[in-house]
Specification:
Protein name: SAM-dependent methyltransferase
Radius of gyration: 20 Å
Structural class: alpha/beta
Number of strands: 16
Organism: Knoellia koreensis
Keywords: Methyltransferase, Transferase
Largest sheet: 7 strands, mixed
GO molecular function: protein-arginine omega-N symmetric methyltransferase activity
Distance between the termini: 34 Å
Strand content: 15-25%
Shape: globular
Pfam families: Methyltransf_28
Length: 308
């Protein structure tokens, strides 16, 4: 996915294949909530890790200008595997990342920063394992051209320790998506923050709701496809959010409601007195509803970790 011709380096970017909460009207509402989170915590820098083509950063920049009426007071930085996107505001800093779990050397010593990893960890590769008929947890190997799976070695060492602590199972044919690589990537990110707040937002689960058959899948051209690791699609597996170093884990609808995001539609009378304001408020309410919907974006999990 991160190679020279991989999915994440394609000209269209992820937005050419699927929509995330950072795109369009939902992105505007999410940006407003994140700015409020930064302001409430006295933070003056927002870093977007896995920034795609700068969609969330663009919304953050616009939200600041709309609220402040002048130049943004919160610094913005994007991190992704591609070069700086065309059209990104000049005030926004951009760091080129190696991809996957690796982060750029220039991302360090962050102070007074809100560091947001929105759908980053779910595409950090992790070991997929399954319990065989003898009750042993073994790696699943995959043919990179066909996606055909085969049995690999038993899981050992730190990965086995992780599985026994966070995803214990001995039932045949149950899967474990071993999150150690994600935990280590997250710890690397945390080590770069001198003081501030780190926030992982992702498809995820906790110990009470692990998916017994796993969650490994792929997306391309707007469709869910077989997870063949040939670089042509986005391969993803949900994140064990509670295994990450964290102070709190809540679902997105709870987090956004805490930040004052409302789904209430505007009164119809506003349409008669100020049609433009009515349409704007209606779009805001619709986006907020989408961001907090059960079975959709509202089921995302937010993991917070305070630093310094």
């Amino acid at each position: 996915m991160y190679g020279d011709d991989g999915f994440y380096r394609s000209p269209t970017g992820p937005a050419g294949h699927f929509t995330t909460a950072t795109h369009g009207p939902t992105g505007r509402v999410l940006a407003e909530a994140l700015l409020r989170l930064a302001t409430e915590n006295g933070l003056t820098h927002v870093v977007d890790v896995g920034a795609g083509r700068g969609e969330l950063l663009t919304h953050l920049y616009a939200a600041q200008r709309a609220s402040g009426g002048g130049s943004p007071t919160v610094a913005l930085t994007g991190v992704d595997v591609v070069a700086r996107p065309d059209g990104l505001p000049d005030d926004v800093r951009w760091l080129h990342s190696p991809g996957g779990a690796a982060l750029p050397d220039g991302l360090n010593g962050l102070t007074d920063a809100l560091v947001v990893a929105h759908e980053w960890l779910d595409v950090v590769p992790c070991t997929i394992a399954e319990v065989d008929d003898d009750g042993s947890l073994r790696e699943r190997l995959v043919d990179p051209t066909t996606g055909t799976e085969a049995w690999g070695d038993p899981v050992r060492g730190d990965e086995l320790t992780w599985a026994e602590k966070h995803w214990p199972t001995t039932q045949a044919e149950t899967r474990v998506e071993i999150g150690l690589a994600r935990d280590l990537a997250w710890l690397d990110l945390l080590s770069r923050i001198d003081n501030g707040l780190a926030l992982a937002i992702d498809y995820g689960h906790t110990a009470a709701m692990r998916p017994p058959l796993g969650s490994l899948t792929a997306y391309r051209d707007g469709h869910q496809v077989a997870p063949v690791p040939d670089g042509s699609s986005d391969i993803t597996a949900h994140v064990a959010m509670d295994s990450l170093e964290h102070d709190d884990v809540v679902d997105q609808r709870t987090a956004l409601r805490r930040l004052g995001i409302q789904t209430r539609t505007p009164p119809v009378t506003l349409a008669r007195t100020d049609p433009a304001a009515y349409l704007s408020a209606l779009e805001q309410a619709s986006a907020a509803t989408a961001l907090t919907a059960e079975g959709g974006f509202g089921d995302f999990l937010w993991a917070f970790s305070r630093r310094g």
